[in-house]
Specification:
The chain is about 50% helix and about 5% strand. It is mainly alpha-helical. The protein starts with a strand and ends in a 28-residue tail after the last helix. Bound molecules: s-citryldethia Coenzyme A. Belongs to the citrate synthase family.
Length: about 425
């Protein structure tokens, strides 16, 4: 970032404080308040961090007003249309698109780390069969620090690299095994002769009783869904990973924290909640009832898959997913899927409603993804695990960037305290 000659002036009780203004390569200027408390003895107050930059980064940029998403400068619609997930992983991790030799080496390293330590199978078997796959993923990923001790020392760049490759490579295996475990089917091991998306589909849907041929349409759609969920600036789960990592915790524990945060229905859990909402609406004639509920201040109901802290225009990922939904369902012969029709009519009704227009509420990444995933054969409980699998590269890239940053220090926010001031203990007889 460049230090501007510009500065912001803050006046408190007649005293003036100059706060430097830092300029980004894109997006709004930031007021540097790092010295504010030392100089002025005051904190800033920003629950939910609506106006707060927690770090500087070179990985992903979102222009919420334009509805633009760039990964290392490349627009998401170009990456979704022309690249593939492992190439996007390379871009996010190392900053540039790979040469053919670099890509081949990277894909080979990932492919050769897809298997899990055999002892981890017992870990899966400790869960109830009806456990949510996200509960299993949170536990198993956290437990990786108990199995891969040679890649937990974050001060060693080589161990950081190994941990990164292991996590990206093993997440599909873990997610697929979490799914198989909950449906009582045997685990399917990864294969080195399949690409990343095809391997995941086979590990989810193959059974020992027959051969499984990967449908190239599904594999391309799966890879595109991975790409569209790969990274997204300092969202709640990425911020969780950064905060956990700031204490020096090992990478597996930090990614497990990110998975736990992503699970919430306001974040990555919205894809499951959105499809459940569309199924509850059921038919287009019930759309007005749900639009009215979403607008009712006394009703906690919100349109799932709608709205976003940053996008005040349609989420560019939703645009690609809407087009992909049409293509995939058409190719799968389910183009007359009634839920897709409900989704499209719900989107049109909401976008035509002044409430949503005034609040700039548009479909986000979770609005159409579930329709595609359900058509591909996944139960709703697997939607957020697939989001977590996809986002692992984003969490890891941001984690690596933070650890390599010489400014890196433990994150420790302050507070606006509204509790009791000091008072003396009263013995119970006197209360
Ligand atoms: C993801 O941060 C990221 O980048 C996340 C993500 C990523 O890739 O990492 O993009 C992934 O999490 C996408 C978001 C998925 N969540 C949902 O679809 C759940 C439904 N949406 C919301 O709950 C909400 O829109 C959020 C959580 C996404 C954003 O919430 P904000 O930014 O805190 O906005 P807000 O709650 O302050 O809402 C502003 C106003 C409120 O009305 P007022 O109090 O001003 O009168 O808009 C209303 C809200 O009530 N509103 C909605 C709404 N979302 C916001 N009203 C109805 N339906 C909705 N979906």
């Amino acid at each position: 970032m460049s230090e501007n000659t510009k500065s912001a002036k803050l006046s408190i009780d007649g005293k003036e404080f100059d706060l430097p203004i830092l300029s980004p390569t894109a997006g709004p200027d930031v007021v540097d308040i790092r010295k504010l408390y030392a100089q002025a003895g005051v904190f800033t107050y920003d629950p939910g961090f609506t106006s707060t930059a927690s770090c500087d980064s070179t990985i992903t940029f979102i222009d919420g007003d334009k509805g633009e998403l760039l990964h290392r400068g490349y627009p998401i619609d170009q990456l979704a249309g022309q690249s593939h997930y492992l190439e996007v992983c390379y871009l996010l991790l190392y900053g540039e698109l790979p040469t053919p030799a670099e890509l081949e080496d990277f894909e080979c390293r990932v492919t050769n780390h897809t298997m899990l330590h055999e002892q981890m199978m017992n870990f899966f078997r400790g869960f109830r069969r009806d456990a949510h796959p996200m509960a299993v993923m949170t536990g198993v990923v956290g437990a990786m620090s108990a199995f891969y001790h040679d890649s937990t020392d974050i001060s060693d760049p080589w161990q950081r690299e190994v941990a990164s490759i292991r996590l990206i490579a093993k997440m599909p295996t873990i997610a697929a095994m979490a799914y198989k475990y909950t449906i009582g089917q045997p685990f399917v091991y990864p294969r080195n002769d399949l690409d990343y998306a095809s391997n995941f589909l086979r590990m989810c849907f193959a059974v020992p009783a027959e051969d499984y041929e990967v449908n190239p349409i599904l594999s391309r759609a799966m890879d595109r869904i991975f790409t569209l969920h790969a990274d997204h600036e300092q969202n709640a789960s990425t911020s969780t990973v950064r905060l956990a990592s700031s204490s020096g915790a090992n990478p597996f524990a930090c990614i497990a924290a990110g998975i736990a945060c992503l699970w919430g229905p306001a974040h990555g859990g919205a894809n499951q909640a959105c499809l459940e909402m569309l199924n509850e609406i059921g038919t287009p004639d019930r759309i007005p009832e749900f639009i009215a509920r979403a607008k009712d201040k006394n009703d906690p109901f919100r349109l799932m898959g709608f709205g976003h802290r940053v996008y005040k225009n349609i989420d560019p990922r939703a645009k690609v997913l809407k087009q992909s939904a049409d293509e995939v369902l058409d190719l799968l012969g389910v183009e007359d899927n009634p839920i897709l029709q409900v989704a499209k009519e719900l989107e049109a009704a909401a976008l035509a409603d002044p409430y949503f227009a005034e609040k700039k509420l548009f479909p986000n990444v979770d609005f159409y993804s579930g329709i595609i995933l359900e058509a591909m054969g996944f139960p709703t409980s697997m939607f957020t695990p697939i989001f977590a699998l996809s986002r692992t590269v984003g969490w890891i890239s941001q984690w690596k960037e933070m650890i390599a940053d010489p400014q890196n220090k433990i994150g420790r926010p302050r507070q606006l305290y509204l509790g009791s001031t000091a008072r003396n203990y009263e013995d119970i007889e006197n209360r």
